[in-house]
Design goal:
The chain is built from no helices and 34 strands. It has 379 residues and is mainly β.
């Protein structure tokens, strides 16, 4: 007996095959039959079996190589609890199909490739501290690419971002995150050391961040302001974080930005009310930015030195409501949402889901003696 085929051979009744797929085999005896008539054709002197289909063969196991991922720090040197962060370098698993002696089964490709999102099991993120919100991950993850010759890649995505669940204030902590998955195909061929894992959910061993792993529980604070109707009025606004015992100005925050359109002007009292006409005052800054946690909001000098007050509310969630003014020469416009829910606070309810508000008043003490310009209480 003697025949040969790709990546294997059949000789002297001993078969060896080290590839995936299947092959057709026919046994032929052309030696013994040669004792027949010498003048017969070669085909007539052969004794052959019918064709035998052998296989399908599958890999013995998978080998994997990991490309280390990197998260992007969301705000300079930290990320707010509840603020989404994404990969700047995606995690990639390179999978190689191998036979029993660890050689690559190069035919494991195309229709013979059996790794699918359904066959991969146990995909999970875990963290040493805090609870991860993975709802922003894409529905199909990882993306599977067959690169050929028995090799393919599994590339993961953070979708719209991962974040830590935000409930009650917690002291700053580091985000030490791990990602694991069982590499297995539809034929139950597997990576011997499953799960394949990126980093460890343990202090100092998590997936790296581009800046710092620090997570801070934050909120935005607006403070009441009182001033003369004859000048512009500054309103204090700042970002804060829970330092373990109370909220303090977040001096590390120089990245937060709020569009003017997300700060609602409403609840007017007195002549400051636009009353369906042109706005009497508006926020001059657009956007409102922060340096070392301190922002600047300045309400413009009221038209006609109008006195009265206005309630400022920052739309920090994802739902827009209310009206705002962008100048003193036109009417009110529909406000937008800032999508900064990680800065909401517990201002009126039991949860940290409230938008901050403050009242700004012009000429509140206008009935005082003429030499009295305005009064402002410091605390």
């Amino acid at each position: 007996l003697a025949t040969s085929f790709a990546s294997g051979q059949l000789t002297d009744n001993v078969a060896a095959y080290a590839e995936v797929g299947s092959f057709a085999l026919k046994l032929v005896d052309s030696s013994f039959a040669s004792v027949d008539a010498a003048d017969s054709s070669a085909a007539e002197r052969e004794i052959a079996s019918s064709t035998i289909n052998v296989g399908r063969f599958v890999p013995d196991h998978f080998a994997v190589a990991l490309t280390p991922p990197l998260f992007g720090t969301a705000c300079g040197g930290f990320t707010y609890v509840g603020q989404a962060f994404n990969y700047t370098t995606a995690p990639v698993i390179t999978v190689t199909a191998q036979h029993f002696t660890n050689g690559t089964t190069v035919n494991y490709a195309g229709a013979l490739w059996q790794i699918t999102n359904a066959s991969l099991t146990g995909k999970a993120y875990s963290a040493a501290t805090g609870t991860l919100d993975a709802s922003g991950l894409p529905g199909t993850d990882p993306v599977i690419a067959i690169t050929g010759s028995g090799v393919g890649t599994l590339t993961f995505s953070s979708g719209t971002g991962l974040s830590f669940t935000r409930t009650t204030p917690v002291a700053p902590f580091d985000a030490d995150i791990s990602l694991a998955i069982n590499v297995i195909d539809a034929d139950n061929v597997a990576y011997a050391s499953n799960p394949a894992r990126f980093a460890q959910a343990a202090a100092g061993l998590g997936i790296a961040f581009s800046g710092s792993k620090a997570q801070r529980f934050g909120r935005l604070r607006l403070e009441n302001a009182v001033g003369s109707q004859n000048t512009a009025l500054p309103v204090q606004i700042r970002t804060q974080y829970w330092n373990g015992s109370g909220f303090a100005t977040n001096t590390a925050d120089s990245c937060t930005s709020i569009p003017r359109s997300a700060i609602v002007l409403g609840g007017y009292v007195g002549a400051l009310d636009p009353g369906g006409g042109n706005c009497k005052t508006f926020i001059q800054e657009d956007p409102v930015t922060f340096t070392a946690g301190v922002g600047a909001i300045t309400l413009a000098l009221p038209t006609g030195a109008a006195s009265g007050s206005v309630l400022l509310t920052a739309n920090l969630g994802t739902t827009a409501s209310g009206l705002y003014c962008d100048d003193a020469a036109s009417g009110e416009d529909a406000a937008t949402a800032a999508a900064l829910s990680h800065l909401q606070g517990r201002w009126a309810g039991a949860n940290y889901t409230d938008n901050p508000s403050a009242r700004a008043a012009f000429g509140l003490y206008g009935a005082q003696p003429r030499q009295f310009i305005y009064f402002r209480e410091n605390y």
